[in-house]
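QA checklist item 7 of 12: single-chain prediction sanity check.
[x] sequence parsed
[x] length recorded as 143
[x] structure emitted
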Amino acid sequence: MSAAATLAQHRNLVRESRTHDEAFEFAVAKLSELLREERTNPRAAVRFLRVLRQIQKPEHVFPHITADEEGEIIALWSASKMSLELAIPAEGDAYLRMTDHDGSEIVVGFFRWLPLLETSNFLSDLSDLVVQSNPRWRSLFAS
């Protein structure tokens, strides 16, 4: 299946869901751009979408999404010194790094199975920090 067809399937999943998921739509648009530019692997894009679907809540801030030189999807959420970095390859273990309010690493490493609940809870805390400093953060992503 082509990358475009795979991402189209994920878009259809979003449309079929009862809730509007802006973060997922944002990610699909960014991944489509990376795929058109041949900067990522379609399998990495699909793996990232599957992880995002499990950790991202509607109230969470959106990640910055890019690809590295090997085509891995790199997602970064940050607020002040607090950050979450996620690298998803086409195959193999994912890399996860979380830094707390003071910049100290609280989770770092490669994971076959990501700690999804802990990651989602961390994103809730990080998003709360963003909302406190900029309640209108979503306007930065308006097209």
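[x] summary fact logged: Helices lie at 3-16, 22-36, 42-55, 116-133.
[ ] second reviewer sign-off
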